Amino acid sequence: GADGAVAAVDLGASSGRVILGRVEDGALRTQHIARFANDPVRTRDGLHWNLLELYRQALAGLALAERGAPGEIISAGVDSWAVDYGLLRDGRLLGVPYHYRDARCEAGVARVHEIVAPEALYAANGLQHLSFNTVFQLAAEGPLLELADRMLMIPDLLGYWLTGVASAELSNASTTGLLDPRTRTWDTALAERLGLSPRILPPLVEAGTRLGPLVPEVAEIVGRAFDVTAVASHDTASAVAAIPSSRPDFAYISCGTWGLVGLELDAPVLSEEARLANFTNEGGIDGTTRFLHNVMGLWLLSESLRHWYPGSSDAQRSSRLQELLAEASRLGGPVPLFDVNDLSFMPPGDIPGRIDAWCARHGERAPGTPAETVRSIVESLAAAFADAVRTAAELAGRDVSIIHIVGGGSLNALLCQALADRSGLPVLAGPVEATAMGNLLVQAQAAGQVDPGLDALRAVAARSASLTTYTPGARSR
Ligand code: LRH
């Protein structure tokens, strides 16, 4: 296969990064080029992503990567969080894309369910009910939708700005609620029933498809016109692709802002039990199904820190979090457990206060100190993760013998040990940058640097990651 480096633009809900990767001796070597905050902006009409800033940072990162390795980059790929999108008319962006934590979605849910009942919707799209699924956001969109001739998901929108090619990569398209999980094609009949013009849905592409070279204006900024490849552009799909496992009976938790907990399957599970358990069937690479449940994740910690230390920097907050986690791990005795998935925790704001309110509503003692709140969050997340693993296995009729946790949560020893204890299963933690690795490896595979197939990709991921094992019951006292 071709030599050369590949670049990942990986946009998470709280930060973005540009990472350069090279496959050498069957392992992926990565180099962190740039990291930047992703701070949403609230305006009079709601909560938005600062998308132009993210794009500018992505370009700056790619330019820096090119300068550090002149002429070496053969391809770049973009992934981000799911469900959000921009509307365009004649290639021009209409309005500032909304953040999925904006409150506008509920009206859209009611509008959609008036036309298609929840059971029928699940039978059609296989998605767990999240009020921010694209289909509900579109139903709450209002007049801009009439003007639009295209909807592009966030990574596809960046891909379009980079190359001029408008497409919809499948893994992320599968989070819209407008894709048939069996055929992996747009459900244009469903779109039409909901009053959405199918013309706004771009042509679908699979991860690994070459989109094209950077357009000249972009190449000028970046320094050269390398290719852009469609990767598994849903961050969770990239993370699952890079799970460093060689065995089929693993469960995974992609733990960043969210904890995405589930199994990789050959086909969707569309049973009524799966719908009631709120399990989703999202698209993975190579025709796989990501059968998973959205559990609240590190958001509960990061947003609590934001509440306790307003105006402090990212770095200050994360060092304070380390101190609180250390303190939390020394606490003896049980801490209050709460339902991390309670909808009151969705919007930005005073999470510790809402945890207290949840406890009051449920006759539970509230945590007394920030360290105890942190311990409550960690234990409650671990309990919810373990529960989701059990439910996934039951619903899919599969055995699970190991849990892989990747993403930021894999660095949280207290969380990983609590997960092992509560699930009774060994937990293998890492890599922390699984999403970026999945992004890079799909590109390397498209370039012929990795053998075809998901197994070959995972074998490279396994050779590239250093993992920590947590054994049930090994909690130090
Ligand atoms: C994680 C994630 C998740 C989606 C949510 C909107 O970053 O992509 O898979 O459900 O963001």
UniProtKB/TrEMBL annotation:
One protein family per Pfam: FGGY_N
Domain spans labelled Carbohydrate kinase FGGY N-terminal: 8-239
Gene3D superfamilies with a match to the protein in the record: 3.30.420.40
Keyword Iron-sulfur tagged: no
SUPFAM superfamilies cross-referenced by the UniProt entry: Actin-like ATPase domain
Family, as annotated: Belongs to the FGGY kinase family.
Name used for this protein in its record: Rhamnulokinase
Origin organism lineage: Bacteria, Bacillati, Actinomycetota, Actinomycetes, Micrococcales
